[in-house]
Amino acid sequence: MRLGLYTVSGVKRLDMCPCALLGDRASGKTTFLGLLYAAQVKYGTGIRDDFRFHAPSPTLNMMSAVYEGMKDARFPSATLKEEITELGFVFGYLRPIVGKLPHYIREKDWIQPFSTLAFSAYDVSGEDIEEFIETGIAGKPIIQQLLKSIVVVVLVDCSKMTMDIDTPQYRKMISYDSTIAKLLVAFQTYKRQEASRLEAQGIYGDAPTIYPAFVLSKYDTLRDDVLLRLGLHRGFPPLSDKRARRDYAEALLRVFLPQTLSQIRGGKVAGVSMDKAAYFLSWVRTEMHEGMDVVGAPRIVRTAFRPDGGGEPEFSFDEYVAFIEHFRDIAHRIPDEIRDAEKFAATAV
Amino acid sequence: MSASRSGRFFPGVYIDGPSSMVQVLIVGDRESGQATFLTLLYAAAVKSGSGKADEFRFHAPIESMETASLLFQQLMAGAFPDAVTKQGIHELILQVDSSRSRGGFLSRLRGKEGPSSLSELRFTLLGALDEELPLMLKGSVTAMGGWKNILDGDVVTLLVDSTKLAAKVEGSEISPMSEYDASAETLMSAIQHLRQRDDRRLVYPTFAFTKFDRVNPDVLKAANVGSSPPRIDDRARTTYAEALLGHNMPKTVALIRGRVKEGPGFAKPAYFFSWVRTEGSQPGRADRIRLRRAELSGWEPEYPREEYFAYLGYLENIASRTRA
Q1: Distance from A275 to chain B by nearest Cα, in Å?
Q2: Mutate which of A170, A257, A259 to disrupt the B interface (most B C-beta within 10 Å)?
Q3: Element (H or E) spanning B324, and its range?
Q4: Which one of A99, B12, B46, B245 has the largest count of C-beta atoms within 10 Å of its C-beta?
């Protein structure tokens, strides 16, 4: 999907690769986006200049408002969340070969220096999605856009993970599992059908692939009894140990999102590989009063002032950077598939 | 390595879809637990498909996911399928990677089995045999609902409601299962008759004893068998099952046993046992499924998962024979 010229962030002539960010209501989507904004502002203004970020102004306004609120120790308000219905942003990664070019060549208009991924955030409880799942017809543009996604980011709300099966949280989690599993199967079906159509036109690409990423949101609220029951320790394995991270996250998904996990693995059976799943944490520290229940809305703990900054929300910054970096390789790899799709679209006309 | 039509290789990705399909017809009488059987089958697939060992992979097509996930949700909330959901269940399709039974992980890694090890298992609920025999079996040339699949069925799974099993009936007394037995015999002989000119393949009869935790102990005693069935791989299982079926479903058993004389018709039957534990029932309230906490895992219903997994394995073997 070619979206023309972007100049705001220096990301030029985008081959947009759609990516979906899925989350249940109150799963921490807005907070996630606010913290992601904070992380990418900090990370994207580094000396290397190999990552850039762009968002349309409504999204940018909201993300910065969320972040500003967090700097005042507040979580995003419900009113703020309702102000905007569609959230989207673009990650741009400097192409490796471009990075080696002299700066004056890099600046030329004919250079496409960045591989890009366009994220759109969806509320999976939304009526559009439910309607699609029930009817199987992707009539609305938002659903068509969603199905074209190559990257699927699923937010999993750790505060709803409970061993008490008679609670609404448990029931919500089981219901969320069904919805996400169905959506993933819909993604697989769509990708497989698209690949078949391309093949019928004599256009052969690689095996269809979807890159799933799970973000365990509100990780700090994960209950001790859940961890104990599953034989897990508190603390996610380090970023360097991908296997341990996968094992840890899958231990949670196996209990709370079993259908989703089975259909991720079953992607290969459906002819669409989803095996390259990645797992990330999201947490933001909140004020705790020992032995006392917090009265009113929880307040965010902020870092102490230092010479290089401070007064910022204390959150899992490294995980957010890892999240950003995880998509670098994917962004560089995807355009071939997009070009195949474009070629197909052109021949179909 | 599996190859697409383009000639490119995609290790372990089944780009060309299933290479064999097994049509499973599920038959039972009213309240024999057809919907619960299908629910537990899906639950067993989910449990194994999300297991730590990653030895079993399956895909549920989107047309099956809506119903399957609803059934699963109800199960995990401790509820049996409700009447509305039951009305909506006609079919469940599972596409299964069969390489686990022939080399497992290494085989899948190498992709040696390739696309040939992908099977589609298509389960069709035919309906309650005791309520009405389909018109088709009464001579009509038209068939309604799942009955249209009779001619294409590879496996017929007869659900046997264990609560209706009786000890040997003396004299002129009618066995509680006699009507079901007669209907099942009619169905099986119709299938045999319809297939007489079609020697393409065998029909595989399977008996699934449902609600086996509620079988009358006197029945077991009279049949001179233990309280729990022999292990799946134990040959004594056939003896055990036949001891229970012998005087409860004599006509059906006799018809299937006579397979050799009648020519290519039925394969040797297989037997499976199912149950799901329930909470103590309270007056005026529906039975609830008891959920247990599994070791280092979450909640799951108390049911014989290994029986369902064996059933899936049995069907996969049939699929591999079909391929051969």
Answers
A1: 10
A2: A259
A3: none
A4: B46
Following DSSP, what letter does each residue of A197-265 receive, concatenated? HHHHTT---SPPB-EEEEEEETGGG--HHHHHHTT--SSPPPTT-HHHHHHHHHHHHHHHSHHHHHHHH
Q: How far apart are CA A205 and CA A199, in angstroms?
A: 8
Q: Which of A255, A269, A336 to mutate to test the interface with B (most CBs of B within 10 A)?
A: A269
- 3-class DSSP state for residue A320? helix
Q: What is the pLDDT of residues B33-42, one digit of tens each?
A: 999 999 999 9
| Residue keyed to tokens 């219903």 | B301
How far, in Å, are A74, A151, A214, A241, A324 from residue A278 at the CA level? 29, 11, 6, 12, 12
Reduced to 3 states (helix: H, G, I; strand: E, B; else coil), residue B113 is coil
ipTM: 0.86
Domain ranges of chain B: 20-323
Tell me if A98 sits within 8 A of A106, measured CB to CB: yes
**A196 and B CB contact within 8 Å:** no
A115-155 tens-digit pLDDT: 888 888 876 655 666 677 677 677 777 777 778 888 999 99
Three-state SS at A31: helix
Mean pLDDT of chain B: 82
Tell me which chain B residues have a C-beta less than 8 angstroms from the C-beta of A228.
Answer: none
